[in-house]
Amino acid sequence: MSKIIVTGGLGYIGSHTVVNLLEDGFDVVIVDDLSNSQHDILRRIETITGKQPEFLQLDISVRDNVMSVLRRHSDADAIIHFAASKAVGESVENPLLYYRNNLNSMIFLLEGMQETGIPNMVFSSSCTVYGQPDKLPVTESTPFRPAESPYGNTKQICEEIIRDVCNANKNIQAIALRYFNPVGAHDSHLIGELPRGVPNNLVPYITQTAAGILPELRIFGDDYDTPDGTPVRDYIHVVDLAIAHRVALRRLLDRRQKNNYEYFNLGTGNGYTVLEVVKAFEKATGVQLRYRIVARRPGDVEKIWADTTLANRELGWKAERSLHDMMKSAWEWQLHLRDHPELLGS
Ligand code: UDP
Q1: Residue 163 and residue 166: Cα distance in Å, rounded?
Q2: pLDDT 10s digits, 231-275
Q3: 29 versus 299: which is more confidently predicted?
Q4: pTM of the model
Q5: For ligand 1, what atom is nearest to the CA of residue 203?
């Protein structure tokens, strides 16, 4: 049985991926410092899967912590590295925190892989590496644009670090997955996103507004060059994303890579405007949403959606879940959270 170390395995995308790996028979070791999750998510993963993954509560921006995990599990076949700070606004206010957390952990993990001989890594990257591309849909060969935030910069730098290490050390193989906009929750409604404080992202903002926690959704601008003037994004169901991690992992384990460092866009290939998302939410849930158009949000790109040809062809993976499915599961998760406020630490 292959053993996989999953950093950030109790986070939003991490927990869904852990469930998928356990269901597929992988042996999973979760490393998470609980900075953006709750211990109860572990129990929920166990309820869904009937399995008990090992859990280590550790901060992997500390070198000794990384080395102790990797030495103890030097028989691991791969690392899936999710653990990172991810709030764009916070990264602008406290860039050093972001550079320290996100870059140190990457460097220490790669050093640990070189030392222990753990050969494979799957890395959480983001479509933010592209900025606003000139040509849409965006392919993997689209060049990086200067990052809009320290958070975005850490994703670019991490990809560059992996590329250089893979160039220098052919025993290390890695795949970076560039997520578009992950939304939705697991069918069980036992795991989902746990936004800290007032959400920055659109879908948790919508569900909290619908639940009466927030008074109204503010839509940031309707004067963009898009079908209805609101920005276009490629929203992808978190379960589709989780499956893609397992598929990428299999590619590494089966040595099917064309190059020891590869990167793929993970989206549906469909772009939706903010107003289309609002309408899809209302249709999927029967709940009317209060919203108001306000000024543009600084740093937002106008439109982006993925060309998923490479992931479809090379990984044999395709996102299956619709915007309707995403909205329905996001709402059901919000209703679950209403009955379990302790999950948000309140
Ligand atoms: N958005 C919005 N109101 C909000 C949050 C987001 O209108 O309260 C818009 C935002 O301008 C963007 C889209 O929703 O066009 C997706 O934003 P999100 O922060 O979820 O993801 P991003 O693509 O910015 O990473």
Answers
A1: 5
A2: 999 999 999 999 999 999 999 999 999 999 999 999 999 999 999
A3: 29
A4: 0.98
A5: 20
Q: How far is CA 58 from CA 69, 181, 182, in A?
A: 9, 27, 25
**Phi-psi category of residue 173: left, alpha or beta, with phi > 0 → left and psi -120 to 50 → alpha:** beta
Kindly give the distance from the C-alpha atom of residue 339 to the centroid of ligand 1, in angstroms, as a whole number: 26
Q: How far apart are CA 157 and CA 330, in angstroms?
A: 31
C-alpha span between 240 and 253 (Å, rounded): 20
Cis before residue 137, ω within 30 degrees of 0? yes
Strand 181-183 relative to strand 235-237: parallel, antiparallel, unpaired? parallel
Distances (CA, A) of 254 to 2, 163, 233, 310: 11, 20, 33, 18
- For ligand 1, atom 7: residue with the closest CA: 219
Decide whether any atom of ligand 1 lies within 6 Å of the 219 Cβ. Answer: yes
132 three-state secondary structure: coil
Q: Which residues sit opposite 272 in a β-bridge?
A: 233
Structure tokens at 157: 């730098």
- Whether the CB-CB separation of 295 and 248 falls below 8 Å is answered with no
How far does residue 40's CA lie from ligand 1's centre (Å)? 29
Give mean pLDDT, residues 21-41. 97
Q: Do the beta carbons of residue 44 and residue 190 sit within 8 Å? A: yes
Q: Which pLDDT value is given to residue 299?
A: 86
Contacts of 283 (CB under 8 A, 6+ apart): 324, 327
Residue 200: CB within 6 Å of ligand 1? yes
Asked if 236 and 319 touch (Cβ cutoff 8 Å), the reply is yes
- Residue 149 Cα, ligand 1 centroid: separation in angstroms? 15
Residue 261 falls in the annotated catalytic set: no
Q: Which of 78, 89, 83, 38 is nearest to 62 (CA)?
A: 83
Q: Catalytic residue among 12, 98, 130, 151, which?
A: 151
Ligand 1, from 88, 181, 201, 305: best to mutate by most atoms within 8 Å of Cβ? 201
Confidence of residue 346 (pLDDT cuts 50, 70, 90): low
Residue 120, amino acid: N
